[in-house]
Amino acid sequence: MTRRIRGMLIVGAAVAVLAVPAVTARAHEEHQAGHLDMVVGFGSEPAYVGQVNSVQVLLSHEGEPVTRLDEPFHVEVSFGDAEPLELELEPYFQLGSWGTPGDYRAWFVPTRPGRYTFHVHGTYEGEDVEATITSGPKTFSDVLPLADLQYPVQDPTAGELAERIDRLEPRLTEAVEDVRAEVLDRARSAQAEARDARTIALLAVVVGAIGLAVGGLGFARARRV
Question: In what order do the strands lie in the sheet with 127-134?
């Protein structure tokens, strides 16, 4: 291999490595909060329903990654009318060992497709820092249906199954109540029939006893005559 070809390969590899952060930045949202620069988005993009993912926040100060926080930062994840989920951002790196310095993550599993909002807040060098960013074409990835990746058949997600159960539950409850009412009606009818049968049997016994008594009196009178 000539030096020229080897040099071209090295330059190409360097360009490819440098292009990775640029792609990541385009898939995230850059935001300046006080003395900090933030890059916010999903840790894995595009994001899919039912797959473990994370809120990724890259923190830097004056161009240098922030590798130490006096107090942990937090992120509030919200979706539609659902109750927001509060998470703590944790370092996703080990200095001199692995990861990207300044990379902080908070893990969760998105269960519905659509737009998510991340509200990042904390304190840095005595200053309150916060940023609110919503997913979309100009920020970071919306959560996509997992069916987009499924092959050869598309299976419903746990969330879709839960929605179906929610829709069926009122009808199932109504059906159970109908069966319960029918069983109670039959039980009452059976009890009424049983009471009628006992009454008829008792009447039969009484009538029989009266018949025996009358017959006995008649027999006694006939003997006296």
Answer: 85-88, 74-78, 117-124, 127-134
The C-alpha angle 135, 156, 81, rounded to 5 degrees, equals 40
Residue length of the chain: 225
Place of tokens 């005595």: 126
Instruction: Report the percent of the chain where pLDDT is more than 70.
Output: 80
Q: pTM for the complete prediction?
A: 0.62
Q: Identify which has the larger pLDDT, 213 or 2.
A: 213
Q: What is the residue extent of each domain of the chain?
A: 3-149
DSSP type of residue 49: T
CB 49 within 8 A of CB 141: no
Superfamily of domain 3-149: Domain of unknown function DUF4426 (2.60.40.3340)
Mean of pLDDT values over 127-143 = 94
